[in-house]
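Technical annex B. To support the medicinal chemistry partners, we prepared a structural model of the target in complex with coenzyme A, based solely on the information shown next.
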Amino acid sequence: MHRLAGDTGVLDVNSVYAYVLWCHDFPSTSVVAEVDGELAGFVTGYRRPADPSVLMVWQVAVDDRLRGRGVAARMLNHLLDGVAPGGASRLHTTISPDNTASQALFAAVAKQRGLTLSRRPLFAATDLGDGHEPEDLYILEP
Ligand SMILES: CC(C)(COP(=O)(O)OP(=O)(O)OC[C@H]1O[C@@H](n2cnc3c(N)ncnc32)[C@H](O)[C@@H]1OP(=O)(O)O)[C@@H](O)C(=O)NCCC(=O)NCCS
């Protein structure tokens, strides 16, 4: 996951320890996809402690050789199917304004599941430092 995050060239790369700890503590809201035994993609997420009806998706990455085949959408649908019985019916994520692939991904998942999609500013560039893009909050909900 650490390697794949770095290979995307656009995701913030967290430490190996951060990914290991994440999977240890949030296994039901995170997933990896494998193709022929090799890592093809991952999603990290959590249910918001202040509002467990929300699945907060943090990072989504797919190996660039395997993009455009529905891997990311399938991982997100897998997570949404998994949290629905526990009462989580909404998805939140943040996306930078220039990430059209990610915007298209979440728009497609909203359409597939009949969810409405809305967006509002969340974090300004100055909140995130290091020349980071701002991050808008995307909300998918019934
Ligand atoms: C964003 C990302 C995860 C998409 O993965 P993917 O497996 O290629 O996406 P999917 O094949 O599941 O596509 C899902 C939908 O998004 C659309 N989409 C995906 N990439 C797109 C692109 N570059 N341009 C336009 N639409 C795109 C697909 O057409 C599809 O829509 P459809 O069902 O209406 O045809 C992948 O491009 C990636 O890893 N990017 C780098 C990391 C990143 O930006 N992550 C997101 C921010 S956390």
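Notes passed to the chemistry partners:
The chain has one domain: 2-141.
The pocket of coenzyme A is lined by residues 8, 10-11, 59-62, 67-73, 99-102, 104-105, 108 (CB under 6 Å).
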